[in-house]
Design goal:
Outer membrane efflux proteins (OEP); two-stranded parallel ribbon
Length: 486
C-alpha cells in the first residue's frame, strides 16, 4: 500500500501496472515514480524476491528438526503353497506400523513406534518407546542448537542482503535518472547557446552591412554556430543513452516512451532526496553506518557462526557416550494372551533395557585439524571485522567531508554562473556600442555556457553523492517511506 506517509513494498505488487493508453504518448516520470517502478520491475529485485522463497524454507527446515516427526509404514501379503506334500491354504497377513520421533534442544531423541501385525486371523500388536541421550559429545543446548542458530543468522543475513538489493536498486535508478536529467539540461543549454550564437551572426551581418565590422570577422561567429550544432548532436546521443539505461533500471522495454520533467528544481529535488531534516552530523552518520551498513552487519553476524564452528569442532573431538533406554510391550505371537490389545498390558510379553555406548577418539588428527582451522578462521574474521569497521568509519568521514565540499561547490557554481551572466550582458552592450570585438563577445558566450553546464554538473554530482551516502549509512529507503516486507 502506498500513501503519503508510508510505503509498504510487497515486491510482487508494489505499484499498479503502468498502462500506456497511447503507445506514442510519452510518459513523464517523476523521481518518485521512477523509484517505485524500479522496485516493482527491476530484474535484480525480482530475482532477490524469488530467492527469498527458498531462503525462508531453509530456516523452516532447521526449526522442523525440533518438531514431532510422524511416519506410517504398512504392508499386505497373501501367500499359499505346499511343503512336503502338505498344502497351505491362502493366508493373508497385514501390518501397519505408525511411529513418531522427537528431538529436543539438549540432544535427547525420543521415539515411539507401534507394530500392528495381523496374520491368519490373529492380531499381535507391539509398542516400543525409546530414549537416546548423548552424555558428552552432542549434549547440551549450545551444541544441539548450532544448526538452528546458523539458520537464524543466515536468514537475518538474507534479509539484510534483500534490503541492500532494494537500496542499491534505488541508488542506481536515482543516479541514472539524474544522468538523464543532466543530459537533457545540457541539451537545453546547448540549444540556448545555439540561439545566442545565431543571434550574434545576425547582428554581425547587420553590422557588416552598416560598415561597422569587417566581413572576415563573422567567420568566428559562424564557426561557433557549427561547433554548437555538433555539441547538440552529441548531447542528443547522450540523452538517448541515458534514457536507455533508465529504462533498463525500470525493467521496461527499450522502446517505452518515457521522459523526465523538462524543468529541474534543485532545492525541491534535494528536499525530496533527503526527506525530513538535513544530512545528519558526522558522529550520528557514523553511528547510523555501524548500525545499518549491510557489509558491516554481515561481517558481525559471521563472527557468531564461526564461534559456533569452533565449539562444534571441539565437541566433535570429545568422547561419545550415549545412554539408550527402551521398553517394549506386546509383540508376541500366536493367539490367546499374546493377541489383541490386552497383550500390551497383561505383562505376558515385555522387554526393558538400558544401554551405554562409548566411542573414544584416539589421536584423531582430522578432528584436531578441524579445531585449528575453525580457530584460525575465527581469528581471521575478527581481524576482518575490525578492519571493516575502521574502513567504514573512514569512508563515512571522507564521504561526509566530500558531501559538504560538493554542497559548497554547488553554491560557488551558482554564484559563478550569475556573475558570468552579468558579465555577458554587460559585454554584449559593449559589443553593440563597438567597444569590444566580436571575438571577445563569443568568448563570453562560451564562458557563460560553460558556467551553466558546470552548475548543472555540480548539482547532479551533489545529488548522486547524497544518494550514495544514504546507502552507505543504510537509510536509502527512509526518504521514500519504503518498508521492505521480507
Amino acid at each position: 500500500m502506498i500513501n503519503r506517509k508510508q510505503t509498504t513494498i510487497i515486491i510482487s505488487c508494489l505499484l499498479p501496472v503502468l498502462a500506456f493508453s497511447a503507445p506514442k504518448k510519452t510518459l513523464v516520470l517523476s523521481l518518485r515514480d521512477a523509484v517505485y517502478l524500479s522496485l516493482r520491475n527491476n530484474p535484480s529485485v525480482i530475482t532477490a524476491e524469488n530467492d527469498r522463497i527458498t531462503q525462508k524454507i531453509s530456516l523452516l527446515l532447521a526449526e522442523y528438526n525440533f518438531q514431532p516427526q510422524y511416519k506410517l509404514d504398512g504392508s499386505a501379503e497373501a501367500s499359499q503353497g505346499r511343503s512336503d506334500g502338505v498344502y497351505t491354504p491362502p493366508t493373508p497377513s497385514y501390518s501397519v506400523s505408525p511411529s513418531a520421533t522427537l528431538n529436543n534442544h539438549y540432544g535427547t531423541q525420543f521415539s515411539l513406534s507401534m507394530d500392528n501385525n495381523y496374520e491368519s486371523g490373529v492380531y499381535n500388536p507391539g509398542v516400543t518407546f525409546q530414549i537416546v541421550q548423548p552424555l558428552i559429545r552432542g549434549f547440551g543446548k549450545p551444541i544441539v542448537d548450532i544448526a538452528l542458530e546458523d539458520a537464524v543468522d543466515t536468514e537475518y543475513t538474507n534479509k539484510l542482503q534483500f534490503k541492500e538489493t532494494a537500496m542499491q536498486t534505488i541508488t542506481t535508478v536515482l543516479n541514472d535518472y539524474f544522468s538523464l536529467m543532466e543530459a537533457k539540461q545540457s541539451l537545453e543549454i546547448s540549444y540556448e547557446s545555439l540561439k545566442q550564437n545565431k543571434q550574434t551572426v545576425a547582428n554581425d551581418e547587420e553590422m557588416i552591412k552598416a560598415g561597422r565590422m569587417a566581413g572576415a570577422d563573422i567567420v568566428q561567429a559562424k564557426a561557433q554556430v557549427a561547433t554548437t550544432m555538433s555539441t547538440i548532436e552529441s548531447n542528443k546521443n547522450t540523452v538517448e543513452s541515458a534514457r536507455a539505461k533508465l529504462l533498463d533500471d525500470l525493467g521496461l522495454p527499450e522502446n517505452t516512451p518515457i521522459d523526465v520533467p523538462t524543468s529541474f528544481s534543485y532545492p525541491a529535488t534535494v528536499k525530496q532526496l533527503i526527506g525530513k531534516g538535513h544530512i545528519p552530523s558526522m558522529k550520528k552518520s557514523i553511528d547510523m553506518g555501524l548500525q545499518n551498513n549491510t557489509n558491516y552487519q554481515v561481517a558481525r553476524i559471521a563472527i557468531g557462526s564461526l564461534r559456533r564452528s569452533v565449539l562444534q569442532a571441539v565437541n566433535n573431538n570429545e568422547w561419545q557416550l550415549n545412554l539408550t533406554a527402551s521398553t517394549t510391550r506386546g509383540g508376541g505371537s500366536g493367539a490367546g494372551a499374546n493377541a489383541n490389545l490386552v497383550s500390551l498390558v497383561n505383562s505376558q510379553n515385555y522387554n526393558n533395557s538400558v544401554k551405554l555406548d562409548l566411542d573414544i577418539p584416539v589421536d584423531n588428527f582430522q578432528n584436531k585439524a578441524d579445531i585449528v582451522n575453525a580457530k584460525v578462521s575465527l581469528q581471521d574474521a575478527l581481524i576482518n571485522l575490525a578492519e571493516t569497521r575502521r574502513s567504514l568509519i573512514e569512508s563515512i568521514k571522507t564521504d561526509y567531508d566530500n558531501l559538504k565540499t560538493s554542497e559548497t561547490q554547488v553554491e560557488l557554481s551558482r554564484q559563478a554562473m550569475q556573475l558570468q551572466q552579468q558579465t555577458y550582458d554587460l559585454n554584449r552592450q559593449k559589443f553593440l556600442a563597438g567597444k569590444i570585438s566580436n571575438f571577445e563577445l563569443l568568448t563570453q558566450q562560451q564562458d557563460l555556457t560553460t558556467a551553466k553546464t558546470n552548475l548543472i554538473s555540480s548539482q547532479i554530482a551533489y545529488l548522486n553523492a547524497v544518494a550514495a551516502f544514504e546507502q552507505q549509512i543504510g537509510v536509502t529507503l527512509a526518504p521514500w517511506h519504503v518498508r521492505v516486507r521480507y
